């Protein structure tokens, strides 16, 4: 995730930390002591377990999908790590942030009103955490599938990446369904693009184009008009600049 000062934040899953790459290219550990655990504290002393998606709100708070602990963590502008939502139990329960339950939360996105959206991978739904701290199911029936429609009738299968465009539409990457779904601000679900190469994470730019990381070791691009191309990568496993 990128902040307004062009600092890039990376969830370093294998090291159980969040890294920061500043605009000058310097890499530091932003939060976490490198131990897989569950501890709220100052950023350098806190612990997380297999962090996944990140999102940054308009005041600079960083939110982390702490998949191994089944919670959403917050790294505040004051440098302290707290639990933003979830009770630490793998489950499926809406309600207040402290009592809600998630299962392997993955992708995150934040809108202009500081509502947080969560790709709840294990529960096959998209959750919403309001800025006031209420957790609800934004879209999905909870039954694995690929059905479009109204929020409570649509179905997802292990949603992972999330991104949100400038008009508030939410896009969901589903590796298992080889598609990207779109959810309007009212929660209506449709298939935005199908027959894809196993999208895992995704991002959108100011022109409405979508970029996604594919399971064939490439970055794919979908234009706002539906054109699909390979944006980067040969498809061969390796590391060449």
Model description:
Helices cover 0% and strands 42% of the residues. It starts with 7 loop residues before the first strand and ends in a 9-residue tail after the last strand. Strands 4-8-7-6-5 form a five-stranded antiparallel beta sheet, with no helix packed on it. The protein is globular and about 45 Å long. With 241 residues, the protein is mostly beta strands. The chain is built from no helices and 21 strands.
SSE blueprint:
Layout: E1 8-12, E2 17-21, E3 27-31, E4 41-42, E5 51-56, E6 62-66, E7 71-75, E8 80-85, E9 95-96, E10 105-110, E11 116-120, E12 125-129, E13 134-139, E14 162-164, E15 170-174, E16 179-183, E17 189-193, E18 199-204, E19 210-214, E20 219-222, E21 228-232
Antiparallel strand pairs: 1-2, 2-3, 4-8, 5-6, 6-7, 7-8, 9-13, 10-11, 11-12, 12-13, 14-15, 15-16, 16-17, 18-19, 19-20, 20-21
Q: Could you report the average pLDDT, rounded to the nearest whole number?
A: 97
Number of helical elements: 0
Distance from first to last alpha carbon: 21 Å
Spell out the helices and strands N to C: EEEEEEEEEEEEEEEEEEEEE
Number of strands: 21
For the sheet with most strands, the description reads: 5 strands, antiparallel
Report the radius of gyration as a whole number of Å. 17 Å
Class based on secondary structure composition and strand pairing? mainly beta
The share of residues in helices is under 10%
